Amino acid sequence: MTAPFATSSQLDYGDSPRVLIVVAGLAGLFLGNLLEKANIPYEIFERIKTQGAAMCLHPGVMPAFEQLGIYEDLMSFSQLGFANDFYNDKLETIANMKPGNTEATIGYNIVLFARPELYNLLFNRIPSHKIHMSKRLEPFD
Taxonomically, which superkingdom (predicted)? Predict the structure, then answer.
């Protein structure tokens, strides 16, 4: 069954431009959260609500979660990530990142969690009138 089309006449754009996020996924939902915090108008068109598997996040992205005020929520369902070893072209170890040791150098740890947990955290922070599920956009010239 094909999802119904959303036409431009069904969307209220007012006088200001809006950001349109199509098939959002984690990146689009994260962007929606950032736009919400910045009070920038946006709408999200998402196909599905859940996505499976596990994933990890590098410490470098953690400040963005703090800026959104959801770092503690993220950590509530996360575990320390696994170890990473880095090698040069002669396969000599040049660095190790073990669970817990990145916090001392970067300020955060690598974390591991179920992908649907992050999806739901981001999805549930989007106001319901700004997200349209199972809709397709009508092409226009």
Answer: Eukaryota
Of 45, 32, 71, 26, residue with least CA distance to 131: 45
30 phi and psi, to 5 degrees?
-65, -45
Distance CA 43, CA 13 (A): 10
**Total of domains in the chain:** 1
We report the CATH number of the domain holding residue 67 as: 3.50.50.60
Helix (H, G, I), strand (E, B) or coil at 101: coil
Rounded to whole angstroms, the Cα distance separating 31 from 64 reads 11
Secondary structure element (H or E) that encloses residue 90, with its range: none
CA gap 111, 85 in Å, rounded:
16
Instruction: Give me the residues paired with residue 114 across strands.
Output: 54
* 8 Å CB contact between 20 and 43: yes
* Residues 96-105: tens digit of each pLDDT: 777 667 788 7
Instruction: Look at residue 83 and give its three-state secondary structure.
Output: coil
Q: Which domain range does residue 114 map to?
A: 5-137
pTM beyond cutoff 0.90:
no
